[in-house]
Design brief:
- The chain is of the alpha+beta class.
- The protein has 4 domains: 136 residues, Agglutinin, subunit A (Orthogonal Prism); 131 residues, no CATH class; 98 residues, Phosphorylase Kinase, domain 1 (2-Layer Sandwich), CATH 3.30.200; 237 residues, Orthogonal Bundle (Transferase(Phosphotransferase), domain 1).
- Strands 26-25-33-29-34-31-32-30 form an 8-stranded mixed sheet.
- Helix 10 runs antiparallel to helix 13, helix 10 packs antiparallel against helix 17 and helix 13 packs antiparallel against helix 16.
- The longest helix has 31 residues.
- The chain is globular, with a radius of gyration of 31 Å.
- The N and C termini lie far apart (75 Å).
- The structure holds 2-acetamido-2-deoxy-beta-D-glucopyranose (9 copies).
- The site of one 2-acetamido-2-deoxy-beta-D-glucopyranose has 4 residues, from loops.
- One of its GO terms (cellular component) is plasma membrane.
- It is a single-pass type I membrane protein.
- It comes from Lupinus angustifolius (Narrow-leaved blue lupine).
């Protein structure tokens, strides 16, 4: 008690003697560990170096939170390379960052010069420049404030959006990565065309829209059912358009920030008793949340399968593409409407909608819904309307022109009235039967006439090679270059053995160099693919369309007699196993790189399972199938091979098991049952390998009759999971993160597929700090030849090597 009292007293004194919250023209802030502290002690400003970087930056962070969370960086674009600079106020009254030799490294620009300027760190975390005497803390009296130049964090009270008078646009820009605060490509800003809304951007492409503000919340945001932590508001008047929030309880710290590594916007709150940040919300939260997943007029419904459905009265633009879950082209009206012809058009109401992209929209606050409808009807490009504000009976008007983009069902959604041919709305409303009686024969005649014209047109067009379809076909061919066999022979020096990169599951891989110098990897497929040339080509085209930064890019293919070759981008760093299981290389993979690899693989797999148009189950995920690019980013290879070899099933039961011992899920290895959950199993094994740096079937625990799963499970049960951690990681690790990864790994390798999480949950678990369920016993605790090795006869298995893909024809 006494000691506590004395330390408190000491703390108090040292604060009084050193802590100040202002810089004046006489008193600057040198880079010697001095800081500014806001008067209530919540924020601190000083010099820091992020991560392992040695660059110096000036930042603001929460003073009382041990894990320094930098909420603002002054010179994010202008790092200082030495530690002898200082922050001061110059003669012109601007805040400047002075280098040791007197050059100005960074400065602020205030338009008006102060007589006696000071820079002060306020209790809100705002750094302001103002007249010394004017301490009203009124926003208008600030000559400059850091809240006008946000970085990646939105603090309570900050405004995100436009000052229309000065043209100032405040937006968030993510750090490039955890040790480089310079502006990245991931940003968050207000869009003010028509009905304003908040948009997350990937470079110049929209990544996620909030949907417009409807008086209560954003129409695309989830409904928060618990006690609200924060109060949100969107201000929209002639002077300003911005979003802001405040904490309901001032003593609770809650902030929103964006992270480019994860492409997520997160809201977190500090939990003092647990000394940790807790994740409250993140965006995008599901597959429907990324921008426009279903194309124009496609409605994304997260609980439906598939998730994309056409709006009522619409049909897929291309049924063929829609069927293979390629939704990009979206939907078109089943019947065109006729504008300004009485009773020839109307509206169908879609309830619970996140309102469409407001880029081409127009809004009015005072109109009623009836006026809104009339306004829409009188303009032939108007395609939909809705209330601006849903409070009470609803008020205001928004109308849209052109295609309706980025629609989804949302808890906070509202009624959207979509323009439609009158026959459709009549059919829906079930009146005007008489009109239908007259319309039907007319319509039939029209349809027959149209069909005849179409057939005639098609015949003509097909004759003269200019039809759209032919063009499309050629484009498709262009997308996937067919390489000449001679070119590849030449590039690989006639498949010479010194060009061999390795042996993959389905054939040998060679390195090649094209005439233009481009390096490629060539997979020469073994001849036993049961597929014809045309099917093979189709599969390759499908794979080439799968593009994700964590998948190896398919550049093309080559078919020559029985030879089938796949051409990939070349990865200079080869595969993960070469790093992980090599004692000299494994040190290059510190924990942050390993986490990045784990996360990247999870992203790639999520794309294959849920987000790509095809839903691909990899079936042979393993360390040697993870390639690393020059920055050690992981890229999954060999995806789609199982499809090419085994056929087109997406889920079910196969007689041919393609996979690798040690990575195969029990139900797959024994019964040939595969699903996305068998991939999750392999992912779990891989995760444990990455954490431990040991092969799944390593000698390390084999003498105890275990594989890695058995070993990890034993350690888990004995409550010593840290023994699994690769010793060469040393102190690069964050223990809690690594233990969390082991925990997730064990959840992925549980015996029963239904217990295993799917990749969406895995991503969530990796990126949040929420509590995880306890894992149940994994499948295959022991070496598995003893289980399947005997029962499968007459297959080519080479059990002497660990890393060979086996293809077992199941004996049933
Ligand atoms: C400044 O950097 C030098 C080496 O670059 C280091 O020796 C010194 O301790 C640093 N000083 C401070 C105050 O951090
Ligand atoms: C001061 O140092 C910086 C590098 O730290 C250099 O770019 C600049 O030219 C120097 N200026 C003078 C006046 O020496
Ligand atoms: C300050 O203003 C001047 C002139 O308006 C401009 O050239 C300069 O780029 C500005 N500097 C910063 C850091 O915004
Ligand atoms: C982004 O998230 C990753 C993974 O959680 C983390 O390692 C990284 O530090 C974060 N980046 C920034 C700039 O906070
Ligand atoms: C950001 O965009 C630039 C230019 O468009 C691109 O070169 C860079 O690779 C992008 N970075 C990331 C992390 O996406
Ligand atoms: C961001 O855009 C770049 C291209 O500009 C793309 O390569 C990348 O995959 C995008 N990232 C996400 C997460 O969508
Ligand atoms: C605010 O939060 C603190 C700490 O959690 C609590 O003690 C206090 O009662 C809360 N105040 C209100 C008004 O809810
Ligand atoms: C703090 O952690 C404990 C144990 O992990 C948990 O039961 C409790 O719910 C956490 N408190 C909060 C506010 O999250
Ligand atoms: C319809 O709306 C568009 C977009 O606002 C506008 O350009 C056009 O002039 C309008 N047409 C009529 C007839 O009002």
């Amino acid at each position: 008690m006494v000691i506590l009292f004395i330390t408190n007293l000491l703390l108090l004194f040292s604060q009084i003697s050193t802590a100040t919250d202002t810089i004046t023209q006489l008193q600057s802030l040198p880079d010697d560990g001095s800081t500014l502290v806001s008067s209530d002690g919540s924020f601190e400003l000083g010099f820091f170096s992020p991560g392992s970087s040695t660059n110096r930056y000036i930042g603001i962070w929460y003073k009382n939170i041990p894990d320094r969370f930098v909420v603002w960086v002054a010179n994010r674009d202008h790092p200082i390379k030495h530690n002898s600079s200082k922050l001061s106020i110059n003669k012109e009254g601007n805040l400047i960052l002075l280098s040791k030799n007197g050059t100005v490294h960074w400065s602020i620009n205030s338009s008006t010069k102060a007589l006696s300027p000071i820079v002060k760190l306020l209790d809100t975390g705002n750094l302001v420049l103002r007249e010394e005497k004017d301490d009203s803390n009124n926003e208008d009296s600030f000559l400059w404030q850091s809240f006008d130049y946000p970085c990646d964090t939105l603090l309570p009270g900050m405004k995100l959006g436009w000052n229309l008078k000065t043209g100032l646009n405040r937006r968030l820009t993510a750090w490039k990565n955890w040790e480089d605060p310079s502006p990245g490509n991931f940003t968050w800003s207000a869009v003010i065309t028509g009905d304003p809304e908040m948009v997350l951007w990937n470079g110049s492409a929209k990544f996620h829209r909030s949907g417009p503000w409807n008086g209560v919340g954003f129409s695309g945001a989830p409904l928060w059912k618990g006690t609200p932590l924060t109060e949100h508001n969107m201000v929209n008047n002639a002077d300003e358009v911005y979003y802001t929030y405040k904490c309901v309880n001032k003593s609770v710290m809650s902030i929103t920030y964006i992270n480019q590594t994860l492409y997520l916007r997160k809201r977190i709150a500090w939990i003092p008793e647990n000394n940790t940040w807790k994740l409250y919300q993140y965006v995008p939260r599901d597959s429907c949340d990324t921008y426009n997943p279903c194309g124009p007029h496609g409605n994304c419904i997260v609980n439906e399968s598939p998730i994309c459905q056409c709006l009522e009265g619409f049909e897929p633009k291309s049924q063929q593409n829609w069927d293979i879950m390629d939704w990009a082209q979206g939907c078109v009206r089943s019947k065109p409407w006729m504008c300004r012809v009485k009773d020839k058009d109307g509206f169908i109401k879609s309830a619970g909608m996140k309102l469409p992209d407001t880029k081409y929209s127009w809004a009015d606050r005072s109109m009623t819904l009836e006026d809104c409808k009339a306004k829409c009807l009188e303009n032939c490009s108007c395609t939909a309307y809705a209330n601006l504000d849903v409070r009470g009976a609803g008020s205001g008007c928004v109308i849209w022109f052109g295609d309706l983009l980025d629609l989804r069902l949302s808890d906070r959604g509202q009624d959207l009235y979509v323009r439609m041919a009158a026959s459709e709305t009549d059919a829906k409303e079930g009146h005007s039967k008489k009109k239908v009686v007259i319309l039907v024969p007319l319509f039939l005649i029209l349809v027959i006439a149209l069909t005849l014209t179409y057939i005639y047109w098609r015949k003509r067009k097909l004759g003269g090679k200019t039809s759209d379809e032919n063009k499309e076909e050629r484009q498709e061919d262009l997308e996937l270059p067919l390489f000449d066999f001679a070119t590849i022979t030449c590039a690989t020096n006639d498949f010479s053995s010194d060009k061999r990169l390795g042996q993959g599951g389905f054939g040998l891989v060679y390195k090649g160099t094209l005439a233009n110098g481009q390096e490629i990897a060539v997979k020469r497929l073994s001849h036993n693919s049961g597929q014809g040339t045309k099917e093979f080509k189709n599969e390759v085209i499908l794979c080439a369309k799968l593009q994700h930064r964590n998948l190896v890019k398919v550049l093309g293919c080559c078919i020559h007699g029985v030879e089938k070759l796949l051409i990939y981008e070349y990865m200079p760093n080869r595969s993960l196993d070469a790093f992980l299981f090599d004692s000299s290389q494994s040190e290059l993979l510190d924990w942050s790189k390993r986490f990045n690899i784990i996360y990247g693989i999870a992203r790639g797999l999520l794309y294959l399972h849920h987000d790509s148009r095809l839903r691909i189950i990899h079936r042979d995920l393993k360390a040697s199938n993870i390639l690393l690019d020059s920055e050690l980013n992981p890229k999954i290879s060999d995806f789609g091979m199982a499809r090419m070899f085994v056929g087109n099933e997406t889920e079910g039961n196969t007689k041919i098991v393609a996979g690798t011992y040690g990575y195969m899920a029990p139900e797959y290895a024994i019964h040939g049952l595969f699903s996305i959950k068998s991939d999750v199993f392999s992912f779990g094994v891989l995760l444990l390998e990455i954490v431990s740096g040991k092969k799944t079937r390593g000698v390390f625990y084999a003498d105890q009759g275990y594989n890695i799963l058995g070993y990890a499970w034993r350690l888990w049960k004995e409550d010593t999971p840290m023994k699994l951690i690769d010793p060469c990681l040393g102190d690069t690790i964050t223990l809690s993160d690594v233990l969390r990864c082991i925990h997730i790994g064990l959840l992925c390798v549980q015996l029963h597929p239904e217990d295993r999480p799917n990749m969406t949950s895995v991503i969530l678990m990796l990126s949040s700090e929420n509590t995880l369920p306890q894992p149940k016993k994994p499948g295959f605790l022991i070496e598995m030849e003893s289980i399947v090795g005997e029962s499968s006869s007459g297959k080519h298995i080479s059990s002497s090597t660990n890393e060979i893909t086996v293809t077992i024809l199941e004996a049933r």
